[in-house]
Amino acid sequence: MLPAEPKSDVKMAWIYFPFDNLVCMLLGISFTVWFTLLLVFIIVPAIFGVSFGIRRLYMKTLLKIFEWATLRIERGAKEKNHHLYKPYTNGIIAKEPTSLEEEIKEIRRSGSNKDLDTPEFEMSDIFYFCRKGMETIMDDEVTKRFSGEELESWNLLTRSNYNFQHISLRLTVLWGLGVLIRYGFLLPLRVTLAFTGVSLLVVLTTMVGFLPNGRMKNFLSQKVHLMCYRICVRALTAIITYHDSENKPKNGGICVANHTSPIDVIILASDGCYAMVGQVHGGLMGIIQRSMVKACPHIWFERSEVKDRHLVAKRLSDHVQDKSKLPILIFPEGTCINNTSVMMFKKGSFEIGTTVYPVAIKYDPRFGDAFWNSSKFGMVNYLLRMMSSWAIVCSVWYLPPMTREEGEDAVQFASRVKSAIARQGGLVDLLWDGGLKRGKVKDTFKEEQQKLYSKMLVGNQEDRSRS
Amino acid sequence: MGSRASSLLREEEIEEIKKETGFSHSQITRLYSRFTSLDKGENGTLSREDFQRIPELAINPLGDRIINAFFPEGEDQVNFRGFMRTLAHFRPIEDHEKSKDPEATEPLNSRNNKLLFAFRLYDLDRDDKISRDELLQVLRMMVGVNISDEQLGSIADRTIQEADQNGDRCISFSEFIKVLEKVDVEQKMSIRFLH
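ok -> structure tokens follow
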């Protein structure tokens, strides 16, 4: 009995041991393979700024799948004889671009044969204000800029689907597969990369900070920043096309761009080196800010300093006057807009009197909506949504530098730059303030309308003095 | 916003609204999407604040009067049916609707109902006549501070004099219709859909 037991024990152990060993070996191999792939295909290219073209292939494949998905939905809807909800970004009602004066004159013309140029009141004048008001209730230019853009084709994300009932079984399977790929494979991969990128940024910039100020420090700081931003770009699977790189911002200038999300910073900073401007934050952001500023001068404001416009202007102009410092990156809209339009640019950065380098950023909404709706999602929720989309695809155009012309004030200059950016990016150029996302509109606009209408009742000042 | 558009509005409701207002299926779903995007409280009704959040409406001199038209007497919330009923006044009059039998109920977007809508913008206390005071108040809204009280007063007097026929120094709805009989109400009080 006694000699038999150890024999069986040994037998058992013999069976377990290689099995255990096998599992360990497999795990070890897969981890090594995984990290090597990560290193070779993602991190090393990020360091050197080259690309294998994998992301573009991925993008093309996805587009084909989306087209197929949309066709299936349309077919499904037709079979059931249902109506499909189709969003239209160009507005749902016809709006005439005529002025207040022209419109009211037209109304009066149809009503009577009296001379149209004598100023007077007609009861039919109210039709103008009434219809204009109703038009804005049905479809206005401003409020729709603060929510995500609606897509015309479905991109297999539940968050952008409006026709749930028309999804067939095949499509559901495809969607399920998409969920698995995005949350099971892409999301962990991206989170790993993001973690790597951010930690490298903090560690390396702190290390560079120990060097004495000089050419070497600046050179290393630029390389470090670029590398870490490139890793972050890959962490989002961002496929960016840069146009007109000969117009890239130079030292002593200010780079202005339209603002859609915090990712804009990563997109621009992975292609060039900028000095960032922003408020000092606590927590993780604060750590990143403090380490970045050790390597090269960024402009971080305390919360109290932000209100002092003169202080802000002084710090910015001091920075641009030092030609050894990097160009400043500013988003003059002041808030995130949904990338269908460009809203009013705040004049602060245009008063400084240096060269302005406009940059237009346009996201392709088919792969993931990059717009950060800060009233709906917090930062963490937003980043999670970004990392579980298919990809972030965008185009960046570097526009030729502009300077303030003679006789042009800061507001007009800001407007001119804004129009240039809107035209290049194919965005609607709006005069409205992005601050309307949260605040009320100023009364001056209403007063302007009232003034215009008063002229039609009593004529100009000269006529009034006569009557 | 959009994902709730077709799921919360049932087919039967759409049919009912179609019958009542004359809007097409796609117009109704589109306007429902608009309704839900304005409804920040997500409770299926709009309040006056929801309307005032539209900047282009807030700068309209008669913005408050227009918003008021959506809310029946004494109520502060309007649901989607009420929203559509008011918007229906601005649907263009189609040719096939013009020659209908006189027994049927008047459609919401008839010439008469469009004029009634405009009349109610002037009639502040909803007593079916426009007094001199009411006319002055509405005029004041439209011109702001740019015209003096005396001038505005004389404009109001002249208008009432021209319109008033029964000598009560107020403008009733039939007098209002008479003044505007030649105006192209059908076109000026209509909003055309692109699709």
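Residues 6 and 65 of chain B are 31 Å apart (CA to CA).
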